[in-house]
Automatic annotation (TrEMBL):
Family matches, as InterPro entries: Glyco_trans_51, Lysozyme-like_dom_sf, PBP_transglycosylase
Tagged with keyword Magnesium: no
Transmembrane domains' residue ranges: 12-34
SUPFAM superfamilies (UniProt xref): Lysozyme-like (SSF53955)
Gene3D superfamilies linked to this entry: Biosynthetic peptidoglycan transglycosylase-like
Swiss-Prot/TrEMBL keywords: Membrane, Transmembrane, Transmembrane helix
Pfam family, one: Transgly
Residue span(s) of domain Glycosyl transferase family: 115-195
Natural source organism: Flavobacterium rivuli WB 3.3-2 = DSM 21788
UniProt protein name: Glycosyl transferase family 51 domain-containing protein
């Protein structure tokens, strides 16, 4: 009886291990199966050719979201509802942007696509591309155009506080509309300002 039980447990553990390995491979390498070489090359080219964000913008972004450019598909997989994908995981947002027409936008597809992107592209490159095509409404596309529209300056000339206004709008341009919803906009902006100051203070101490 004890021998039979050990045998069942051994088979169960083997089956569990094989299942886990299959899921791991499915998620990590599935993106290469559901896309062809030409699609991948075009995707990677689009991302890599996006203009680099100016240093002043990246400084504010990295202070506000210190872990964002370190996040990966596993973080998204296990904390899907816990963070803003567009801001805090650029590769995930890129996967959603390019993958929303595939497989009816299924969660599994986004994860597969994200791992494929992470194999070939950095989070910062993804961020460059995402913010190049972000729609702020009223015909304003991309953070550079938004900077010129709202502040009449190129993005590289903005102060930290004005950069935070741009980041506030990125998260939901329709909701955080300074003209139409000033109270909602200011509340969100103040939240980001406080977070920025707190993180900046902690960085100075470290």
């Amino acid at each position: 009886m004890a021998y039979q039980l050990k045998k069942i447990i051994r088979y169960f553990l083997m089956l569990t291990g094989i299942t886990i390995l299959f899921i791991f491979c499915y998620l990590c390498f599935g993106g290469y199966i559901i896309t062809n070489k030409q699609e991948r090359q075009q995707l990677f080219k689009d991302i890599k050719l996006a203009p680099k964000l100016p240093d002043n913008f990246l400084k504010v972004y990295k202070t506000l979201y210190p872990e964002a450019l370190k996040n990966n598909g596993w973080h998204y997989l296990f904390t899907n509802e816990g963070f803003n994908k567009q801001i805090e995981s650029p590769s995930v947002e890129m996967a959603i942007l390019y993958g929303q027409t595939r497989l009816h936008g299924s969660f599994g597809y986004f994860v597969q696509y994200n791992f494929m992107i992470e194999d070939n592209i950095t989070q910062e490159q993804c961020l460059n591309r995402i913010l190049q095509v972000t729609d702020f409404g009223r015909g304003i596309i991309g953070v550079e155009e938004a900077s010129k529209q709202y502040f009449h300056k190129p993005l590289k000339m903005l102060s930290d506080m004005k950069t935070l206004e741009i980041i506030t709008r990125i998260q939901n341009p329709q909701l955080y509309d300074k003209q139409r919803r000033p109270k909602i906009f200011e509340d969100r902006l103040n939240t980001l300002k406080n977070q920025f100051r707190k993180n900046k203070s902690e960085l100075l101490k470290s």
